[in-house]
Amino acid sequence: MTSPTPVNEILDLRIQISSGYYPVLLNEEVGSAEWARDVVALVASETSAVDHEDSLVTELEDLRIRLLSQLNPYLTAAVSVRPEKIMSLGALLTFEIVDTEPGQGPDWYEEHAKTLVAQPSPEAFTISMNTWRAEITAGDLVGVHQVVEYRQQDDDAGWVEARTVFGVFPPHAAEMVQFTFTTADLNTFGDMRVETQAIVASLELELGQVA
């Protein structure tokens, strides 16, 4: 009789985040305004950029408040800052370990992403979307790149966001790691798909068999 394949769980993970990214502290030990000021002060110490009228402090503070409101203890986040003459928010990176059910592998993830994009929304219009597959050291990777135009009802003004979403499936694991990069500044990346996948590809996992 053939023994069943052992099922793994993720015990620990590490990634190499590019320079220019700053961790978002998702705990209550520091206030959002204090964290935002600390990030801006750190960027200022490393570059000659300035935060015009505290606009980046305000944006970072609001972003952290939104993340904390999700009440997700498994979420890890970082932000990139563009240190031009005037500081601006580059991208938000979030990642987390997600439980999967039997049959929820790379094929399911890719089809699920396509299904979500196909759902109509009065406030979001997908300008472009593509998916791809790859193998990295940590396992099978599914990538999604999407450009979305958002427009609120009764408001002619809108904005465009680009995102890449990656699902990484370690071998024989009951969990996956999901990464999401989001930016409203389309000049943040030269090639968003390539540059963000390079970060994901640095993922190192410690696996152990489920008891």
Notes on the protein architecture:
- This protein is an alpha+beta fold and 211 residues long.
- It folds into 2 domains: 17-92, no CATH class; 100-211, no CATH class.
- The chain has helices spanning 32-46, 55-69, 106-118, 192-200, and strands at residues 8-14, 21-24, 76-83, 87-99, 124-136, 139-151, 158-169, 175-183, 204-209.
- The longest helix is centred in the first third of the chain and has 15 residues, at 32-46.
- It starts with 7 loop residues before the first strand and ends with a strand.
- The model has no long low-confidence stretch (mean pLDDT 92).
Counting helices, strands and paired strands, the structural category is alpha+beta
Number of strands: 9
Approximately how much beta-strand content do the residues carry? 35-45%
Give me the Rg, rounded: 19 Å
SSE string, helices as H and strands as E = EEHHEEHEEEEHE
Helix count?
A: 4
Percent of residues in helices comes to 10-25%
Instruction: Using the alpha-carbon principal axes, give the shape.
Output: globular
Query: pLDDT average, as an integer?
Result: 92
Major beta sheet summary: 7 strands, antiparallel
- Low-pLDDT parts are none
Strand order in the largest sheet: 2-3-4-8-7-6-5
Gap between N and C termini, in Å? 21 Å
How many separate domains?
Answer: 2
